[in-house]
Amino acid sequence: MLEIDALATCLSTPACLVNQTTSGLIIGMLLFLVASGVTLIFGVLHVINFAHGSFYMLGAYFAFTVYQLTGNYFLAAAAGAVGAAIAGIVFERLIISRVYGQNVLMQLLVCYAFILIVDDAVKIVWGAEYLAMGIPAEFRLPPYRIAGGFVPPFYLFLVAMAVIIGLGSLYVVTKTRFGKIVRAAAHNASMVSALGIRVPIYFALLFALGCALAGVAGALAAPVRSLTPGMGLGILVESFIVTVIGGMGSIPGAFLAAIILGLTRSIGSVGFPLFVDGAMFMMMALVLIFRPTGLLGQGTLR
Amino acid sequence: MTSDAILSVAGLDVFYGASKILFGVDLEVGRGRTLALLGRNGAGKSTTLKAIAGVAPPRKGNVRLGTSNLAGSRPDAIARAGIGYVPEDRQVFPMHSVEDNLAIGAKLGPQGQDFWKLETVYETFPILARMKERRAGLLSGGEQQMLTIARTLMGNPEVLLLDEPSEGLAPIIVQAIADLIRKLRSMGVTIVLAEQNMHFCLGISEDAAVIDKGHIVYRDTIQGLKANTEVTKRYLAL
C-alpha cells in the first residue's frame, strides 16, 4: 500500500515537490473557500449548511455560462460569487431560516431535499453531461518554471484570490460594523434585536456571504475541474473535514486545515494513493479524539 | 400628567405559555419624568418592561409612544421607535470590547436625535472611557451594568426602561448607579425604573407605581408612596 520509494523520490526531487505542492495548494485553497463559508454560517447561525456544496456547483455553472457569453473570466468569477449569494439569500429566507434551532436531522433533511432539487435543476438547464470550461483566455500563458516544476499562471491566480478573499472575509467578520453585529447576534440575537437591529436581515446577509465564498470557489474551480450535476457533494464532505479539523467557526483554522488536507491529497497520491481518503478521515478522527474543538476552534464564532 | 404622557400603557395582558402573568397593566410616564415600578420578586415588574419592549409580546393591550401603538411590534421596531430597554441580567456581548458593545447599540433616535454618541457616553460614563478596549466579559458587575445602560443610550431612545439596575451589586456600586440615573434624569431622559427597593428609588424618581401578582395596585408620587405605610407594608416589605 505504501509507495515509500516513490514518495522518497518525489520528496527529494525539486520538480516533483513543486508540482505536488502546487496541486496541493489548489485543492487546499478551493477547500478553504468552501469550508470558510461552512464555518462562518455555523459560527453565527449554529446551523450546518449541508447544502453548501450546491452553492459551489451553482458558482461553477454560473461562471461557465457567463464566460461562454462574454469571454471574460473575471466577470465570470464575479457572476459565480454574486449568483451563489443571491441563491443563498433565497435559500436562507425561504427554507433554512425555518429550521433554525430545530433538530439537526430536520435541517439535514431540508438541505438534502434542496441538494436534489438544485442538482436536477442544473441537469435541466445545463444538461447531465460533463462540461469543461478550460483555462480562461486571460491565463493561456506558458507555465512558470520553478525549480524544474511547472506552475500554470492560473494556479497562482487561484491561490492569490483565495488568500485575498480569505483575508477579506476575516476583515469583514472581525472589523466591520456588519461583522461586529453578526458576532454579537451569534451570541445573543434577542439582545441585538432589542437594540433596534433587524437581525434576520443580518443573518440572511451572512448566509449570502458564506454562499458567495462557495460560489467563488466554484468559479475558480471551473477552469481546472469538470462541471457536473452533483459536483458539490465531494467538496462538501471534504470541507466538513476541513471545518472539523480547523475548528468550527474559525476562518484561520479552516485555512490551516485546508492546506494540510490539500497537501495530504497531493503528496498522498504519490506516497499512499490507496489511502488518501483514509488519511483525511484518520486526521479528522485524531483531531476529534485529542482536540475536539479543532486546531484553532473555540466552539463558536468570536 | 395624562396630557403630557410620552409613554402610556393600557390594559396589558401577558402570558408565558398558559399562565397569565400580567392582568390589564396600565402605566403612564410623563416626558422627562422618572417612574419607579415597584413590587416584590415575581410581581411582574420585569415582564411589564419586557412587554413594553416587545421582548415578551403582550396578548392584549396598547403601548403608546407619542401617538403610535407599538404593542405587537417586533423588539427591533420598538427600539427604533424610541424605547430603549436595559435588561436586568445585563447581557453585555462578552467577547466584544466595551467600545464595540457601544457601537452595536449606536443609532439615531426616532426624530433623528444624535445626542448620545461615543463622546457623550464617555463623558457621562468616564469609567467606560478608561476601559474601552477591554473585553466586556472581563468587567465587574457594576461596570457591566453601566455598559448596558450606555449601550442602550447609544440608540438615543426617548424612553429608557431600566430593569433592576441595582440588583446584585455592592452598596457603593449601587450608589454610583443611583447617581448615574439622577444624572440622566437631569439631562431630561424619561425613565421607567423597575425596582424591589423603594429606598433606592427615593432620591431618583418622582412617580411610583406598585405592581402585585400582575396587577397595578397603587399609583402616586414616590413621596406619597413612602408616606403610605399600609401600602409599603402590604406590597413591598420583605
TrEMBL record, chain A:
| Top-level lineage group | Bacteria
Q: Which GO terms describe its cellular component?
A: plasma membrane
Question: Which locations, inside or outside the cell, does it occupy?
Answer: Cell membrane
Q: Does the keyword Membrane apply?
A: yes
Protein topology in the membrane: Multi-pass membrane protein
* Family named by the database record: Belongs to the binding-protein-dependent transport system permease family. LivHM subfamily.
List the protein's name.
Answer: Branched-chain amino acid ABC transporter permease
Q: Which organism is it from?
A: Thalassobaculum fulvum
User: What is the taxonomic lineage of the source species?
Assistant: Bacteria, Pseudomonadati, Pseudomonadota, Alphaproteobacteria, Rhodospirillales
